User: Fold these one by one.
Assistant:
Number 1:
Amino acid sequence: MKQRPDLTGLEGIALQQGGYFDRQDAQTHGLGDRLLHYHVGTGRFERCFPGVFRLSRAPLAPHDDLLLAQVWTNYRGVISHHNALALYTLSDVMPHRVHLTVPLDFRRTTSPFVLHRSTLPPDDVTDYDGVRATTPARSIVDAASSGIGPEQIVKAVRQGLERALFDVVRLRAVAHRARYRNRRTTVPLIEDALRHATT
């Protein structure tokens, strides 16, 4: 590593995301593996997963588990499905594991998280409360496709419409999107939820 270690810059980025950073972040700021190992040994950094670290002094952030999950994917993953609903406080779902949507070519096989592989259009992704997540409409459709209770989908649709997080046209457009392999089972759930939520 030829550049000077920039601990201040690395820690500044980490503090914006719950104290977490990955090996690439460290290398970008001039910290090679030997220096990373040294700072883990001194207690300045904690090793969370292979290639994922945390500043020991960082305060616990809101959505800490979601931020850790995103860094674990090398920033390629997006919070989705059950966790996105919980992030938006849509429905009463309380997920036990973090759900992420990752690109089709994401290759990590041993995962502490629930991974869903898909190519997400840019307009299905947003930043919410410091977390990169699927939009409310996309989150509801994805949750409906993964077996969440119909009553929770009805509640999420009603709350989303009341809070103007999406409209009926947008929700239907996401559910009817081309090449969506779960459309046959998901569309009836969404239409039923819309009937209940708008009456």
Note: The CA atoms of residues 154 and 192 lie 8 Å apart.
Number 2:
Amino acid sequence: MGAVFAVIVILVILGIIAAARSFKVIQQYEKGVIYRFGQVLPELRGPGLHVIRPVGDRMQKVNMQIIAMAVPAQEGITKDNVTVRVDAVVYFRVVDPVKATINVQNYMFAVSQQAQTSLRSIIGQSEMDQLLAERESVNRELRRIIDEPTEGPWGIRVERVEIKDVSLPEQMKRSMSRQAEAERERRARIITADGEYQASKRLAAAANVMARDPAALQLRLLQTVVEVAGEKNSTLVMPVPVELLRFFVFQPFTLGVRLFGNMFAGHLLLTIFTLASWYLLTLSVGLVYAAGSFALAIFVFLLETLVTLLQAFIFTTLTATYIASSVEPAH
């Protein structure tokens, strides 16, 4: 009786083991590869519950999800002889589970090594400016290099490759910083010079407009005075326009000339009237008295003329002195 019970127990245990080996659950993101006595069956098992032979069959599950693998930083010399350190990330997935399990022992390790060697190769083929500025083209070329030996024989497709960081030596960073600073300064100077050129053209056009109408200069001066006077914390200095000096310089001189002419004409008429009177008087008195009177009239005329010239000279000198004292502080 005890032997029968032992046999039953052994059969139950063997049944449980056989059931555990026969029933396999495959997830939605997996594929099952069946090995029957070491030979791969062509049919792949999809997601769900599957029953295999407990003896002779073995199932290997292959993950079909996209795998993100970080590529360790690789140090190399670029095409323009600059030492850089570059790290990247590779996105790939299995497209043929049979090739991924048969043709390569460990496809994860194989893809990692292929990505590292390809990254060092792309560093040597590219220039530093390409690694820094043309990331898209470098990523596409790196993806092509990695995907070429992996998709056909290994059944692995590289979906995307991204360069994460490019580390440069400190000396190169300082050189690039100085270059960028010089470039920005050059652009700033060009912009400033262009602004000065445009402003000079506008000022020249404004000067031509003001030259055609001198009153515009005075209006512009008054406008500037109004703008400056808005700030109460400043002292206002009024410049004297050059156009106003013409009035102050030429008007007194013209006035002096007119005054001298009027005085000289008056004295001339007075002298002529005196000579005429003395001439009429000489007709009745005599030639001697007439000659004396004529000489006296000539002397009076010369004396009055000298006095008139002296007055005109004094008036002109005082006017010029006043104008000079008024104009010099303005300059």
Note: The first strand starts at residue 23 and ends at 26.
